[in-house]
Structure formats: C-alpha cells, structure tokens
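Quick one, probably user error.
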C-alpha cells in the first residue's frame, strides 16, 4: 500500500511539474514590432525560424541576430527592447499581472551583443523582481532607459534615463535570483555623465568618463556593426548611439538582394530576406483621406516642400482651415482640429501607437534621396507625462538608419526632444487617438535625415 501511495504521489508531482513547465514555456512575453536584416527565433519545441514583425515571443525563447539584423520587441507590460546586430538574448521569465504587483517576475539574459531596454509597467511596479543578466554581471533597474553591451569577458552599460545597478556575480549575487544586487554593486544614473564597465580580469565594476565611451565600447560595437556614441538629449555623452546599422555591414536589405544562388542542387540556398514594409504612401494622400484625420501636416506659404516627393502634406491654406497649429519647423506645421481647445483628455493613461504613414528624406551634398520608413514604435504615458519613439529608415545607398527619441509630453499634448545632433516635436489629438511628429537628425558624414510621421492608437 505504501508503495502504491508513493507511486500515486510521484505521478501527481510529475504531472503537475510537466504542466507547470508547459505553461511556463507557452507563456507569451511579447510581440516583435520591427525586424531589419536577418534575425532568428530559437524555441525549445521547434527548429530555428526567421523572425518577422508580428512574431509572438514566449518565455524560454532566444532571439539572435546576424551582422545586419535588428529586432524590436514590445512586451506584455509595454516594455520596449531592441536587439542589435550580432547579438543573442534569452527571455527567461516574464510574469506580469498589473493587479498583483508582488507576482511580477522578469528576467532577461543577454548572452552576447548589444541591447537597449525601455522598462515597462512590470519594472515600475516591482523593480526588485526585474533582472537583466549578462555573462559576468547582473543589472537591476531604478529607471527606464538603458543600453548594455556584453561579451563573455566584459560588460559596458550607459543610461539614457533613470538609473541601473550593476554587480558582478558572486555568492551574494547569484545568476538565479531576481532584482538588483547590493554586493560590490555600482549604481549609475543619467546625471553621472559616465558609464559602467566590468571585465573578467577586474573584480569590481568601475565608472568611466563618458568621453571615453568610444574606446571602451569599440570592441563590442564594431562587431555589432555600430560605429559611434553621440551626445544625448540630457547632456553630452549620456546617450548611447546604438541605433544605426552601418551600410558597410548591411547587405542591401532595402533592395531585397538575395545571396547568389548556388548552382549545385545539393547545396543549401540562403532564404531570401523579406522586403521591408514601407510606410511612405506611393502617391500623395488625397484630400478626402487627409481630412478624415484629426491631425494634418501642412506646408508653410511660399514653400513647396519636396515637390512631387511630398506624400503627407497639404498647402498651408488647406491644412489650417478649421484647425489650430500645434508644432512646426521651417518647412511644415502640424494642425489639429480642436475647435480652439488645447486641453487633451486621453481615453487611456498609457497608449501604444501604430505607424500609419510617414515620409523621410536623406539630404547630402550630392542631393536628396527619399528614404523608406520601414516601421517604428511610439508609446506615451499620459500619467507619467513621458513618451518614447523609434523609427527605422533605409535606402540602398545609406543602409539602415535608426531614429530614437524620448522626453516629456505637456498639458496641450505637445512633446519634444532636442539635442545638438537631432530635433523632433510632435502632438497628439485631444482624445489621444492620433499622434504626429517631425524629426531631423544630423549624421557624422555631414548629411542629415528629415521626415514626418502620423500614428494611430492601437
């Protein structure tokens, strides 16, 4: 009888354990929102699969990128994460329930490469249960926006907004635990104008001046196809420039060039790279389509913009009729149908927007090129008065160019982010259901990119 009882108990235990494991493996963590170049999904129950926008990622999945790969993931708590070229990231745990903050548990593992993370609600409600592991150090958060470069023997981290805590693994800081470690830890905030560095040969993490970031990070960033760090919107040296995959490493993704076919029948053929989606309308939007929206882009009097290449704009007379100006630059203005009101009353406190249409141009000494706008993300937290956005731009002549911005949204629904190398400004409709912004970015080559966007709430 005792043996039978033990067998029954053991059988129940095994069944429960298997059910728990299956549920954990099947737990949805987020959705891929943007893929550029080649990137892959590694799941425990299936072979490696190419990633594409809309792919669901789950707990225990791994995401890897080739030298031209670039992936954005939106998690179930509205966290945003980008995986850079030549990188591998594992989603080890993603338990989130906004009604039960104590149950939140989030753990990511950056096996190698570069990632940027903008924390979501999970990290905000329970920071003691958020962890990003690297091969030699644990990273906890005290804020929202940070970037990490990791290899088998070193870690480098910079903070764009908020603060992080970096600590080497030890008896007091175990790989399997959650949250920031306190033993031998270094805290870095956006105001420090520094970065955290840890090497396997050094027992403790150390702070380096932001002016040294190129030399300190060059090994990982060059391998990842990144070439520079630039000044951010808060102060020089605080913004990691991890958004551009240089054309030197990109194999004509924008033109959908496929590897040269192998003539031998038995040899494997490289699968074609999916052609990126372009959110630029093929022709200029008609007046009916334009004026069905609350927000409309207009060109100032006497300015023709980009002529036949204009896709989103109307003349000043048309755009301003019955609408109020919100934001603008020397070329364009964003007009809102608010009947004179400037008081926004969004229907939701946190809104994720989907890109509806856009136009962008590359300006250089040799002329102007119309860029593809391959996708992006925009998230606004009206309660915290913060926004964050990313755009992916490309052309066969330029490779992939990423634009990123983050900052504050004001009472009238306007939002801004300006620095020495870039500028952007936008606005939302009074209900928070639409958004639009213009952007401009100066590149190291002396060229620049400029553009306009329109977004719809999801």
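Nope, works fine. Designed sequence:
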């Amino acid at each position: 009888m005792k043996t039978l009882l033990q067998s029954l108990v053991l059988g129940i235990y095994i069944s429960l354990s298997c059910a728990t494991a299956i549920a954990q493996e099947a737990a949805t963590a987020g959705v891929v929102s943007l893929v550029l170049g080649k990137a892959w999904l590694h799941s425990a129950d299936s072979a490696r699969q190419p990633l594409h926008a809309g792919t669901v990622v789950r707990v225990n999945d791994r995401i890897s990128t080739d030298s031209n790969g670039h992936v954005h993931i939106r998690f179930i708590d509205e966290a945003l994460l980008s995986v850079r070229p030549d990188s591998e990231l594992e989603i080890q745990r993603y338990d989130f329930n906004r009604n039960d903050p104590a149950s939140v548990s989030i753990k990511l593992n950056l096996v190698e490469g570069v990632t940027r993370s903008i924390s979501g609600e999970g990290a905000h409600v329970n920071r003691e249960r958020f962890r990003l592991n690297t091969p030699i150090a644990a990273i906890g958060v005290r804020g929202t926006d940070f970037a990490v470069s990791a290899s088998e023997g070193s870690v480098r981290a910079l903070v764009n907004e908020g603060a992080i805590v970096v600590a080497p693994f030890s008896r007091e800081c175990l790989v399997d635990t959650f949250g920031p470690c306190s033993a031998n830890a270094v805290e870095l905030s956006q105001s420090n104008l520094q970065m955290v560095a840890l090497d396997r040969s050094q027992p403790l993490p150390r702070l380096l001046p932001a002016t040294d970031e190129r030399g300190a990070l060059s090994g990982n960033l060059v391998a990842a196809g990144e070439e520079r760090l630039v000044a951010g919107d808060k102060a020089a040296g605080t913004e990691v420039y991890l958004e551009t995959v240089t054309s030197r490493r990109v194999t004509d993704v924008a033109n959908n060039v496929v590897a040269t076919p192998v003539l031998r029948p038995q040899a494997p053929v490289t699968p074609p790279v999916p052609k990126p989606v372009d959110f630029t309308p093929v022709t200029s939007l008609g007046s009916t389509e334009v004026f069905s929206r609350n927000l409309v882009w207009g060109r100032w009097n006497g300015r023709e913009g980009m002529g036949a290449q204009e896709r989103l704009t109307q003349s000043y007379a048309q755009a301003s009729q019955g609408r109020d100006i919100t934001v603008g630059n020397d070329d364009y203005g964003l007009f809102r149908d608010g009947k004179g009101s400037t008081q926004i009353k969004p229907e939701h406190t946190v809104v994720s927007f989907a890109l509806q249409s856009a136009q962008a141009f590359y300006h250089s000494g040799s002329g102007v090129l119309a860029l593809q706008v391959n996708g992006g993300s925009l998230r606004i937290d009206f309660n915290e008065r913060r926004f964050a956005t990313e755009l992916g731009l490309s052309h066969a002549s330029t490779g992939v160019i990423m634009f990123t911005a983050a900052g504050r949204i004001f009472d009238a629904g306007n939002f801004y982010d300006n620095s020495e190398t870039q500028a952007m400004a936008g606005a939302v409709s009074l209900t928070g259901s639409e958004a639009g912004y213009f952007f401009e970015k100066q590149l190291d080559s002396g060229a620049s990119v400029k553009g306009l966007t329109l977004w719809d709430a999801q």
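Residues 14-25, 211-267 have pLDDT under 50 and may be disordered.
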